[in-house]
């Protein structure tokens, strides 16, 4: 549970409250078996927002090479070895799909919050980044008036 500052208001949060955007800060809480952490950046310190994805492309390449080898050698290798090569290529493809990550990174001078986004449409991701940037701008404008 987040403890809000006296003049702080909730702007948005994820379904599980792992990402919380307020009028003063962005908070990310991550829990996994054997690992847990919470990161927070005051909005006046946010210097960048980005969205990118990365993958282990070589898994896909080795899977395709294995598939081509299995199909190319299907006439001269035993059936059991052919099935093994086919299973290896499917496994490589599944590993590639599993390791592909889409993330939102919110950075400051000293910390970078990396939020793995799963199941979000690209438009929703961009809308969230825009919401962060608008809230940062509002926060900076309110601090200038003080």
Main beta-sheet strand count, sense and barrel state: 4 strands, antiparallel
Class derived from helix and strand content: alpha+beta
Please state the CA-atom Rg, rounded to the nearest Å. 22 Å
By DSSP, the count of extended strands is 7
Strand content: 25-35%
**Which series of helices and strands comes N to C?**
EEEEEHHEEH
The amount of helix comes to 40-55%
Number of helices: 3
- How are the strands of the biggest sheet laid out side by side? 1-2-3-4
> How far is the N terminus from the C terminus?
29 Å
User: What would the average pLDDT be, to the nearest integer?
Assistant: 89
The low-confidence runs, each spanning 5 or more residues with pLDDT under 50, are none
The backbone outline, from C-alpha atoms, is elongated
Structural commentary:
By secondary structure, this protein is of the alpha+beta class. Among the domains are: 10-47 and 121-141, no CATH class; 57-99. It is 42% helix and 29% strand. The chain is built from three helices and seven strands, in the order βββββααββα. It has helices at residues 57-72, 79-99, 122-145; strands at 10-13, 19-22, 25-32, 35-42, 48-54, 101-107, 112-116. The strands form two sheets. A four-stranded antiparallel sheet has the order 1-2-3-4, with no helix packed on it. A three-stranded antiparallel sheet has the order 5-6-7, covered by helices on one side. A hairpin with a 2-residue loop joins strand 2 (19-22) and strand 3. The longest helix has 24 residues, at 122-145. The protein is elongated and about 80 Å long. The two termini are 29 Å apart.
